[in-house]
Amino acid sequence: MKTRFSYFIKTYFYFNNQERKGIVSLAMLVVLMQIGNFLFAAFSNTDLPKIEVSVLNNGQHLFVENKLDEAHKIYSKSAYFKKPFLENKPNRYNDSDYYKKKKATLVIEINTADSVELVRLPKIGPVLAGRIVNYRERLGGFTSLNQLKEIWGFKEDFLYDLEGKITLDPKLAKPILLNSIALVDLKKHPYFKYTLSQALVNYRIQHGPFKQVEELKNLKMVNDSIYQLILPYCVIDK
User: Fold this and answer.
1) Same domain for 155 and 200?
2) CATH number of the structural domain spanning residue 200
3) What secondary structure, in 3-state letters, does the chain show?
4) Domain annotation covers residue 103
5) What is the pLDDT of residues 72-117, one digit of tens each?
6) What total of structural domains would you count in the chain?
7) Are residues 145 and 114 located together in one domain of the fold?
8) Domain that holds residue 229
9) Which of 32, 83, 234, 238 is 20 to 30 A from 96, alpha carbon to alpha carbon?
10) Is residue 212 located within the same domain as residue 231?
């Protein structure tokens, strides 16, 4: 019987030198972890105060002395749960003024906003924000939100995402003084460019100053769509 038991042990519990070293190392690691847990529990003061209770005749528990306030003080010693930090943090769930202020900051005037402000809007990244500012400067200002769709990379559905978050005052757009603007300045405008600008200046030289904006229709290049496009910018100056 002893021989069979010895054979069983040697057969199923045989370990070579490398395996024995691994088992010993693992055992030592487990012992060290247990010692560390013991020392941490012995020297750390994280035990919560006990709550004294008494039992009524019907089996229900009655709290005699609740020391949860002391437990909260001990728990708040952690660096991540300092009481002043929690008190100073705004209550975003109950403070209606917070949401009013947040909503107000999201409404951005397109004709005055810089690229930093535009990046705060949904779907507007730094590159697209730079294009918006650049195109606005070439136009002299936007007169309609639909003009944003003329910018490369600005998709039509972006306007739905920006609804209620942007505003536009067409009065902030720089007017084009038909009777005094120079060719070199007019041809920089995206709607006029060189050909239409040259035709306008030539018409002004041949027929004299414009008396009304509707005279732009006399230019052969100006059809109804182009007229509606440039109309918000054109002003008769004396």
Assistant:
1) no
2) 1.10.150
3) CHHHHHHHHHHHCCCCHHHHHHHHHHHHHHHHHHHHHHHHHHHCCCCCCCCEEEECCCCCEEEEECCHHHHHHHHCCCCCCCHHHHHHCCCCCCCHHHHHHHHHHHCEECCCCCHHHHCCCCCCCHHHHHHHHHHHHHHCCCCCHHHHHHCCCCCCCHHHHCCCCEECCHHHCCCEECCCCCHHHHCCCCCCHHHHHHHHHHHHHHHCCCCCHHHHHHCCCCCHHHHHHHHHHEECCC
4) no
5) 454 444 444 444 444 455 555 455 555 455 544 579 999 999 999 9
6) 2
7) yes
8) 176-235
9) 83
10) yes
Token look-up 């995206």 returns 190
Residue 22: predicted pLDDT: 78
Tell me the per-residue pLDDT of 185-238, one tens digit each, with 9 for 90 and over: 999 999 999 999 999 999 999 999 999 999 999 999 999 999 999 999 999 987
